[in-house]
Amino acid sequence: MGEKSAQKRQLILERARDVFIEKGFKNVTMKDIVEACEISRGGLYLYFENTNDVFMEVLKLEQEDTDDSLEAVLSEESTVADILTLFLNEQKREILKKDDTLTIATYEFFFVNKFSKKDHIMRKKFELGVKLISEIITAGVATGEFYCENPLVMAMNIMFVLEGLKISAKTIGISEKTVDEQLLYLLDGLLIEEE
User: Fold this and answer.
1) Contacts of the segment 6-11: beta carbons below 8 A, 24+ positions apart
2) Nearest to residue 139, comparing CAs of 123, 155, 124, 125?
């Protein structure tokens, strides 16, 4: 793909993301994306076959952006506790976002579409989160910063709490104080108190 084509594709994904944020997933048509991008229908179909294809690519870009932002703030002086706190703060930011979030569209997308376990992006993202947190906890136990008998189970618990908070934020609404309390409770269960 040439540079001009790559730029056009990027523009389509950025504008489509805005449409999905505004309308969710199930109410978006290719026509909506065409209008948002101010391109021809054929121009859009050169890059994507349907809204599923567009949304999958938007999700991949979102994940890359999250990964990049985490890497950018990590330093060699970061303790394991700092790394876990940074991860949880990034999740908190996502949970509390009122606008500019794909959360509702993402849940709609996965309710509407059936994926096998191996092709399920949301499952992969969850499992990757569990793996990352488990590795962080294991490293924290090794450095003496954390106490945890089963890092994998604790990591799964953290991911389930985060998912629950995301859904609650979009359905019943939760305060920053509530999110902080839940995240601190998770951290307190790991941290070894200095005497």
Assistant:
1) 8/39, 8/43, 8/47, 9/47, 11/37
2) 155
CA atoms within 13 A on the CB side of 18: 11
Q: Is residue 9 situated within a structural domain? A: yes
Same domain, 53 and 84: no
Tokens for 101, please give them. Answer: 């979030």
Tell me whether residue 106 is in a domain: yes
90 and 28 co-located in one domain:
no
- The whole-model pTM stands at 0.77
Domain of 96: which CATH number? 1.10.357.10
Task: Find, among 191, 77, 88, 182, the residue nearest to 133 by Cα.
Answer: 88
CATH code (residue 22): 1.10.10.60
From first to last of its 195 residues, what are the pLDDT tens digits of the chain? Answer: 688 888 999 999 999 999 999 999 999 999 999 999 999 999 999 999 999 999 999 988 887 766 555 555 555 677 888 889 988 998 998 899 877 788 888 888 888 888 777 777 788 888 888 999 999 999 999 999 999 999 999 999 999 999 999 999 988 999 999 999 999 999 998 987 665
Query: Are both 47 and 82 inside the same structural domain?
Result: no
Distance, CA of 155 to CA of 148 (rounded, Å): 10
